């Protein structure tokens, strides 16, 4: 079995590739190694993957149409997991074109490659951001998500729509996964929990938006990877969807902990693990952000028998352990 993992030098892509390789599966990974955050961290992740049997890496951008077409011509992939994307809600306010190039044009290139080579199943990363300012909780995949409040969220919703179109037109099995605030070792430095730990360790203040009145369905990365692996082998069949006149082999799932945590409690857990108290700067809500996320994971549990469950106390301890080891810090 040969699986293409895009964004393989990224946070989730690295963990997924590592899991698949340990199971004896061939992984072909691509990544453009863009400088949105510290490239040396991406290279360090790759350094852990490259010595492993069955792993191949190519530097390649999803927006490179000829390059992606050639990739699919040269290799017969059984499955594809698309984790490559321009990430971050706030950065989309500064550089919208990066999101269109990677998340929209790049995704079409990938869809074309999958359909031309009859890939068995495309699993792609969506985001809880698609729920926008929805107030109904928990967020369910059947909820209306027609009012995104960031360009990042709009591109992820566009991915879901394009994937459904290809599933309908070409019977390409596709599954979208709406991730909820993924955290853990080897995480992204632009994420709040990473910034919190870094600032507290360095004795600097942390910025807390919406005056701390935030809730997040924090999801530990190993749980996300378990969900991806289970969904990958659960190929959707062509079934009639509610309120649609067409049927397609297409599915959406939330992957979240189904247990939203108050941001101030999350920070308190970090303080407890570090043995240090943070200096807190309470600030207003940032543009494009939402006050709360909360995943309904009933469909995931029903279809693949799994729901994330790692408590934040364990997840944060593992992240801090990795952070101190990676950056050679004693606390």
Describe the structure.
The structure is a single chain. This protein is of the alpha/beta class. The protein has 10 helices and 15 strands. It has helices spanning 11-22, 39-49, 65-74, 96-116, 151-170, 192-201, 221-232, 263-274, 298-304, 312-326; strands at residues 2-6, 26-31, 55-59, 79-82, 121-127, 174-179, 182-183, 206-208, 215-216, 219-220, 239-240, 247-248, 250-255, 261-262, 280-282. It has a 7-stranded parallel beta sheet with strand order 3-2-1-4-5-6-13, sandwiched between helices. The chain has a two-stranded parallel sheet with strand order 7-10. Helix 1 (11-22) runs parallel beside helix 2 and helix 1 (11-22) packs across helix 7 (221-232). The radius of gyration is 19 Å and the shape is globular. The N and C termini lie far apart (44 Å). The mean pLDDT is 93.
For this entry, give a set of tags.
331 residues, 10 helices, single chain, 7-stranded parallel sheet, two-stranded parallel sheet, alpha/beta
In short:
With 331 residues, the chain is α/β, with parallel strands linked by helices. The chain contains 10 helices and 15 strands. A hairpin with a 6-residue loop joins strand 11 (239-240) and strand 12 (247-248).
Architecture blueprint of SSEs:
Blueprint lengths: L1 E5 L4 H12 L3 E6 L7 H11 L5 E5 L5 H10 L4 E4 L13 H21 L4 E7 L23 H20 L3 E6 L2 E2 L8 H10 L4 E3 L6 E2 L2 E2 H12 L6 E2 L6 E2 L1 E6 L5 E2 H12 L5 E3 L15 H7 L7 H15 L5
Helix pairs in contact: 1-2, 1-7, 3-4, 4-5, 6-8, 8-10
